[in-house]
Automatic annotation (TrEMBL):
Organism classification: Bacteria, Bacillati, Bacillota, Bacilli, Bacillales
BP GO terms, sorted: isopentenyl diphosphate biosynthetic process, mevalonate pathway
Organism, as annotated: Lentibacillus cibarius
Gene3D superfamilies: 3.30.230.10, GHMP kinase, C-terminal domain
Name this protein carries in UniProt: mevalonate kinase
Protein localization: Cytoplasm
């Protein structure tokens, strides 16, 4: 039996996080600068996991790996493979708990590696269905946008219960992602918004609706190469996210600094309360300058990447 490999990139939410859990649209971008590789080998005995966090038999894996573990069981069942004789090595360059979709990427890389090991083809539905098992552990009530973006090569327009739509930007957009260095907990952030809805339904619903409206306008901005408009939408969405209580002092500090240094817009990305911010630079040169400045300002890690218009 051959060594089998599965890979997956990560994701960024451009706009619409949290509101997407409650039926609003969101835009997410595949983020190929960091990712996961899962390698499966035949090793007799019970199934073993080898990852940064844990090395040992799958049965004794810590609770934090419940998502992956359950995903492995479900995938093996689907593939009619016996639950033994495997070593699954997980190598990830995605910092966990930073809103970059690390949990979904790990699950998808592992599912793909098991299909490769079984020499079976998969459909996108297979991957999404199995990855959803893991995401339930990571997010509680996930919208599904992380898994969809991680299986997509193009920016994703996503609304629950609607077929997925892909966005083709009409211009080049230069983004910077800066890591606050602190881990966020998407599950508790999602739960805290759900609690707010219970306590002040009208007020919170109007904020979620507003994020939905901003997301529609952000799509128009991407499709009409309108950087300034997109920047404004990111800033407006950040205001709403702050009001929802999912931004924190560390994120705000990076966001305000990026704006002060000329970013057209900046906001948190992903679950919030820790994790990363995304900023829209004016152009490629500005993107490099801003990224250096954010590093000096204390961002834990900084990535710059461009969303390019498709060449025909
Ligand atoms: C997490 O990347 C995005 C959230 O909207 C949660 C979800 O959609 O499942 C915060």
């Amino acid at each position: 039996v051959q060594t089998a490999i599965g890979i997956a990139h990560s994701k960024l939410i451009l706009i619409g996080e949290h509101a997407v859990v409650h039926g609003q649209p969101a835009i997410a971008l595949p983020f190929p600068l960091v990712g996961v590789e899962a390698v499966v080998d035949y090793v007799p005995g019970s199934i073993k996991i080898d990852s940064t966090f844990y090395h040992g038999p799958i049965e004794s894996a810590p609770e934090s790996l419940d998502g992956v573990t359950n995903c492995v069981w479900a995938t093996l069942e689907k593939l009619d493979l016996p639950c033994e004789d495997l070593l699954i090595r997980i190598k990830s360059s995605i910092p966990p708990g930073k809103g970059l979709g690390s949990s979904a990427s790990v699950a998808i890389a592992v599912i793909r590696s098991l299909f490769a090991y079984a020499e079976r083809d998969y459909t996108e539905e297979d991957i999404l269905e199995l990855a959803a098992i893991s995401e339930k552990y990571a997010h509680g009530e996930p919208s599904g946008i992380d898994t969809l973006t991680i299986t997509s090569a193009l920016p994703v327009w996503y609304e629950k219960e609607h077929p997925i739509d892909r966005i083709e930007p009409k211009g080049d957009f230069h983004f910077i992602v800066a890591d606050s260095g602190r881990m966020g907990d998407t599950r508790s952030a999602v739960e805290s918004v759900a609690e707010l809805i219970k306590s002040a339904p009208k007020r919170i619903q109007s904020k979620l609706d507003r994020i939905g409206e901003l997301t529609h306008r952000a799509r128009n901005a991407l499709e009409s190469a309108s950087k300034h408009l997109l920047g404004q939408m990111l800033n407006e969405a950040q205001k709403e996210l702050e009001a929802l209580g999912v931004s924190d002092a560390g994120l705000n500090r990076l966001i305000y600094f990026a704006r002060q240094e000329g970013a057209l817009g900046a906001k948190l990305t992903g679950g919030g309360n820790g994790g990363c911010v995304i900023a829209l630079a004016r152009n490629e040169v500005h993107s490099r300058q801003l990224s250096e400045k954010l590093k000096k300002f204390g961002a834990h890690a900084v990535w710059s990447f461009a969303l390019k218009k498709k060449m025909d």
